[in-house]
Amino acid sequence: MLATYLIGLREGLEATLVVTILVAFLVKSDLRHRLPYVWAGVAAAVLLSVGFAAFLEFTSANLEFRNKELFEATASIAAVVFVTWMIFWMRRAARGIAGELRTKMQSAIEIGPIAVAVTAFLAVAREGLETALFFFATVQSNDANHAVAAIVGGIATSIAIGVGLYYSAVRINLTRFFTWTGAILVLVAAGILKYGVHDLQEADVVPGLNNQLSVPSFDPTTWWAELLRGMFNVTTNPSVLESLAWFLYALPVLLLFLWPKNRSSHA
After folding, report:
1. What are the pLDDT digits (tens) for 64-103?
2. CB 196 within 8 A of CB 80
3. What percent of the chain shows pLDDT beyond 90?
4. Is residue 251 part of a domain?
5. Could you list the residue range(s) of the whole structural domain that residue 35 is in?
6. β-sheet bridge partners, residue 212
7. Where is the chain membrane-spanning (predicted)?
8. Looking at the domain assignment, is residue 46 inside a domain?
9. Any domain includes 237
10. Rounded to an integer, what distance in angstroms lies between the CA atom of residue 198 and that of residue 70?
């Protein structure tokens, strides 16, 4: 649940910040009459994201075993690719995103109200589709009802933070927030990749399902074991290949993500 909550919080806050920037721009530009078009675009993006999540769940539930495993493996690997791109993109573009959105909104205003709605839709839809895909990939190894509650809770928290930021009631260091959540999401993504490799082994696409890694045994019913499994997909009897995939993704990606951006300029 914690991993799913974090996904909802992180992705939800990105979308909320986008909407906040667009709304603030229109309000400060005395263009409040354009706000309904922003909300229309946001609503359409939310509906698309929910529909995409439902499509993934419906498709997975109606496939035969092997095709189901292949479908879930593909979704898991796609989610890892998207989340990796997202955290590095946000790390690079966070400072300039407000100016970029204002420029796009100004251009949309000059074109017309439909362009305003489309701008809001595109800005939010990207985050929503990523959230739906990442949620689907994460929920495969967790209780669905708890996962839904967790991601809704994360999104609700992100909206509350966004509203607080808009009215200057909340002050948070967004750079630090996105750095820490990004680092945790790298480990979550590593677990999703591990799960995807396991699905490929279940579907007999790659070998080694029964070639398990010899690790110290621990009680899987303890709270910390459940936390490791839910957050990072750390299990008691992993195969060698899926464990290798976890480490080969997590270690270099985490190192690159946390490496100071100005380190190379002083070398």
Report:
1. 999 999 999 999 999 899 889 888 877 776 666 667 777 8
2. yes
3. 20
4. no
5. 2-182
6. 239
7. 6-26, 38-58, 70-88, 108-126, 146-170, 177-197, 240-259
8. yes
9. no
10. 10
d(CA 105, CA 41): 12
User: Which among 78, 1, 234, 21 is positioned nearest to 9, based on CA atoms?
Assistant: 1
| Number of domains within the chain | 1
pLDDT digits (tens, 9 = 90+) for 115-166: 888 888 988 888 888 888 888 887 765 556 677 888 888 889 988 988 888 8
For residue 17, which phi and psi values (nearest 5 degrees)? -65, -40
Residue 60 in domain:
yes
CA distances from 117 to 68, 105, 125, 225 (A): 37, 10, 12, 46
Burial readout 129-146 (b: 16 or more C-beta within 10 A, e: otherwise): bbbbbbbbbbbbbbeeee
Alpha-carbon distances, residue 10 vs 40, 64, 116, 158, 217 (angstroms): 23, 34, 25, 7, 33
C-alpha–C-alpha distance, residues 201 and 102, integer Å: 47
Q: For the chain, give the number of residues.
A: 267
In this structure, what are the phi and psi dihedrals at residue 212, rounded to the nearest 5 degrees?
A: -90, 150
